[in-house]
Amino acid sequence: MSLALNELLCLITVLKSGWEPLSIMAPFQSKSDSFSGFLSLLEFSRRWCVLNDGNFNYYESDKIATPNGGLKMREIVCLAVSPPETHGYDHSFEIYSDAERLYLFGTDNPETMREWVKSIAKSFIPACAEDLLQKDFERIGRLRYKDPLNLESSKVGWFCLVASTLHVCLEDGHGQETIHLQKLLELSRDNEVLVLVERGRTLYIEGERKLDFYGWASAIERAAGSSGDTLSQQQLTEADIPVIVERCIHYITQYGLTSEGIYRKSGVNSKIAALLEAFRRDARSVWLKEGEQQVDDVSNVLKRFFRDIEEGLFSQQAHNWLTVSDESRRISQYQLLFNNLPRVNKATLRTLVNHLYCVQRFSEMNQMNLHNLAIVFGPTLFQTDGKDYNAGRVVEDLIQHYITIFHVNEQQLKTQLDEITYIIKLRDNLNPKTGPASGDFICTVYLEEKKETAEQHVKIPAAMTAAELTFEILDRRKITVKEKDYWCCFEVNEKEEIERPLHYQERVLPILHSLGTDSHLLVKKNYSMEAMLVYLASKVDVTKHGMLKFREEKSLLGLTTGSFNDRYFMLNQTSFRLYKDVRSNRAEKEWPVKCLKVYQGIKKKLRPPTWYLCCDTQTEMREWFATFLSIQHAGLLWPAEWVKSRAASRSAPLDTRLGNVSLIPLRGTENEMRNSVAAFTADPLSVSLIRQSA
């Protein structure tokens, strides 16, 4: 078969130490490994090109036997299909060579391009990866990679990108493996290394050649993000639930189930919009924390997400749900409609209704019964203006008959509700009631050690950070901070013999609300900080792995414990994983790093979930601890510049205020002094300060 020259226009640009433009036009011939035809330059001149027996050559014309240049198929490392009209043509593709050259081809004939792509790929993909050729790929080629259990040497793998799925044939693997990029726990780029973290495994892709590595990295990052406005195009969890939905529901379950009017009250529009935009930009990088986000803001983010999602939660079947009217058959019809939903819509609907069922089970505290939830979520989920009564009726039916419609295991549901009840009781026991009407919380903070002479009674505003509290205490005692004095605020539990340095950006008030009767806040020097900063500065990649002694609390109530065992641990940007030994390829357990609180010391007993890790030396413990802190706080362990600027500002004359409390004026009329003393005796904080100073 021979095609007319105007059926294929191929633009080739060669990149080597700058751009050397060269465009070509080439027709396709029937022989699978042989091509010939004219190619045109960027200025629309043409070259006669031949692809035959693994060699690609181009000539001035079909009458000249000496080629102008060429490319061997074994030199190709990557073939990429470009989006439409990327290079001025309806269809185009790119070829990358191991000599750092890029060839760009463009054509207006899709069939011709597919034949070219298929034949070129077949000519350089080895037999061990030939299954990849069956995919409708966007990019295919060779890359080097490292396994986290052997970071010393890299291996060769063949990769194929199809939509949001990366198909991989690894050198040490068995057959083809699949990585769902939208379900990654983490995706990060460090210089010329791309880190892909999925549940149970981490893969490091290396940039052996900058040109094709950046192409791969950009393509994978695009594929791993939200690719559209429908549910299935969002970043997903392993259970096919959008990350934004899972994290909002988890946060509200932890902190909002007892919030009166949850889902009915409005949040702050600017905060809702900012949080929603952050989720849309990269949902997996957004972690919701108490004190940083408010419950009503998060609940409104969830509602707005469902209201705005393209095609809605019920997909194109929304009308069918709204028109179910036969009361005797309603449940069975809902079951049928649910089973016909797309996979992601099914998982998301089941998760949301489960959450709403739990919300209404605690309606005596949150005042959100079945009817109230239906009023809120009917128009939201069906994206109506609120005038369609059927929308609320459907949501009410789904919640009321949740167990039947979704075939729920009642024992598992009971366990879930028991766990939520336990969380609520635990928070009630640990959250002391605030006294001052201003909303500030008065607490006792100790300086260097817990004793009466070291007490400082401090009023804690909602926005106060650990660094601000630390320097508030130092200012009161007029302690000068020297260059390498790393003063920190610690959460200390004397009974458990453990402590945790608060991160300098951490809000203090949520910590106070979570402290038990055996815990207190202590300001002292962190003698490990300098060593941790030096250790982290010496590392290119903030990860750590090694053997540790491990024990886990087994039961929800912490009544039974396991024994200590040697286990291999891997800590990366997203997860903390436990392996049976260094040779294991799959993790036995895995925890999100962002959700862990890490304490140092001797841990006797603490409410679950709890994991005990023992190090052989203090240096080893310090390195593990530094790695945890660096990952959890994006490498920001110490506010060096902030401390310097604060020290400079302290050189100014002191104000006539101690903390937030005005001092008694030394001059003035008798009435002025009497009023000042009356104000002081009415303020419990002021009284405490006066007694202490006396």
UniProtKB/TrEMBL annotation:
Residues 1-18 form the signal peptide. Keywords: Cytoplasm, GTPase activation, Repeat, Signal. This is ArfGAP with RhoGAP domain, ankyrin repeat and PH domain 1. GO terms for cellular component: cytoplasm. It comes from the Eukaryota. InterPro entries: Arf-Rho-GAP_ANK-PH_domain, PH-like_dom_sf, PH_domain, RA_dom, Rho_GTPase_activation_prot, RhoGAP_ARAP, RhoGAP_dom, Ubiquitin-like_domsf. Gene3D superfamilies: Phosphatidylinositol 3-kinase Catalytic Subunit, Chain A, domain 1, Pleckstrin-homology domain (PH domain)/Phosphotyrosine-binding domain (PTB), Rho GTPase activation protein. Residues 32-125 form the PH domain. Residues 439-528 form the Ras-associating domain. It is found in: Cytoplasm. GO terms for biological process: regulation of cell shape; signal transduction. Residues 234-406 form the Rho-GAP domain. GO terms for molecular function: GTPase activator activity; phosphatidylinositol-3,4,5-trisphosphate binding. It comes from Pygocentrus nattereri. PANTHER family: ARF-GAP WITH RHO-GAP DOMAIN, ANK REPEAT AND PH DOMAIN-CONTAINING PROTEIN 1, RHO GTPASE ACTIVATING PROTEIN AT 15B, ISOFORM C.
